[in-house]
Give the backbone structure.
Amino acid sequence: MPYAPAVRPALLAIALMGLAGCGAPVPSIDYEILGTFPHDPAAYTQGLLFHDGHLLESTGRYGESSVRRVDVPTGEVQARVAVDSALFGEGLARVGSELIQLTWKSGRAFVYDLETFEVVREHVYDGEGWGLCYDGESLWMSDGSSTLERRNPQTFAVVATMEVTAGGAPQRRLNELECVGDWIYANVYQTDRIVRIDKRNGEVLGEMDLSGAPLSARRPGDIEAVLNGIAYVPETGVFLVTGKLWPKLLALRLDG
């Protein structure tokens, strides 16, 4: 039975509204998996970075949060400091000879000596802490929304905020961050996506789909064991990525 003429304009309007809400698709970033390394399957990875031949990692969960130095080839934890059991560790960034670790809902950021892991001071902030990275000038911080905050690395004061968009729509659930040149790479929480953000305007200009990562690298059957953790090795241009509770660390080379 054909649609009545009076119904057609309404259907057309709905269709056009749907099209108007869809931006241009975000280009895919191809990558090659170069290999895997062991990763502590009990580490609830929240922040990850590479420095001086080692991984520096922040782990979360109440009563299990820590900051650690990890040997990449073996996955051995070479140094570790526990976070107060009442706090939930989050993102991690290195600023010179210090590390800064966020906490989830406590509004406290701890500054550690890079070598000793001794807490040397503390910052306070409003809202939730998720991901953190340092671009050599500013700290960038996520809170699970589509907004990134740019912060002063010495005072931790907010300098500016930036809305992140993908195809014209807000890109929400930004989590762990890695600053690389003009880009910020971000895990999208509870997905297998890593997005590449232009830090000049917040536009997502590419994304990696890690759904094809080997099952042996994951922890199947655990809904909390999601992709989270991006570290860049500037000497080789390789990315090291993992997930919460994953038994492997993946080494990736991007094609574009």
Summary: The chain is about 5% helix and 50% strand. Confidence is low (pLDDT under 50) at residues 1-21. The two ends are 51 Å apart (CA to CA). The domain at 26-254 is CATH 2.130.10.10 (Methylamine Dehydrogenase; Chain H).
